[in-house]
User: Fold this.
Amino acid sequence: MWNFPVMPEQASEHAPKHDALFWTISALLVIFSILVYALIVYLVLKYRKGSPASRANPVHDSKTFEMTFTVIPTILALIVFGWGTKLYVEMRDPPKDCMEIFVIGKQWMWHIQHPNGVRENNTLHVPVGRNVKLIMISQDVIHGFYIPAFRIQYHVVPGRYTEQWFKATKPGKYNLFCSLHCGTQHSEMGGYVYVLTQQEYAEWLANQGKRTTALSMVDKGKEVYEQLACGNCHGSVDSPRGPSLNGIFGTERAQEDGSKQLADEAYLRESMLAPYRHLTKGYRNTMPTYSGSISEENILSLIEYVKSLGKAKTAPMPTATPTTTPNPAGRS
Assistant:
């Protein structure tokens, strides 16, 4: 017997829902194709040259026929559209309890970081039955992070974080690909996803942590934070030198132009690399930019450290405008 599966294995919560929609669309395509071609063959044979079929009083239009072949396909199309929209929204809206894993696409490999500091190249270990959110970015060109067995694929873009989430439902080893042509060795940019039981994953994570001297992402971020002397301007309270970063993540930040910005991962990254694109209310463009001088790995670690900081202490906004003192916080 040939082992030639029609579809990849279903190994995530998304997979059965995705396949149900796919097979429904395929069935409708086949049904309507057969119906149209059957009518074509029937009419060709009935009215072929020399046939005895009556050609008197030909019917030029039929309201019943036209309405039938307009209303029914429209209703079916709207059902498929609503179904697909619901599935898309579910796949793009990660649950609140997701475990976060960070992915960096490079020519030509996947670099993956776990919050405790464990790093992987071209492999991804995850626990079964746990919601996992991937926070992804590319350091060169556009890539596509694609796991066929999970039915997930999303662009990994330079200069911008993208996200996708999944819940693996079956332990095993599954293919991981780059789905977008990204250069000469694009075909080699692949690897495997290993879905482990909860206990196996905890043991794997602990063992990997013992084998490496790498710090957790929060500890690494703290180290980089201190190396860059960010604390000189970012204290526990807002000051004329810069706003506090304590508790900043997930809050809305008032800007000089009157707008508000959500302090998410993308906002914090932009604060480091392009701090003058949006200025926090009360501050001027005195913060140095770190574009080109800090790696994506360190940026991710810095963001995790900022996310770990406690709530800011209550203090009035600065009334003085910074003048000559460099301010690594002008954007935040």
User: Anything to note?
Assistant: The chain has six helices and twelve strands.
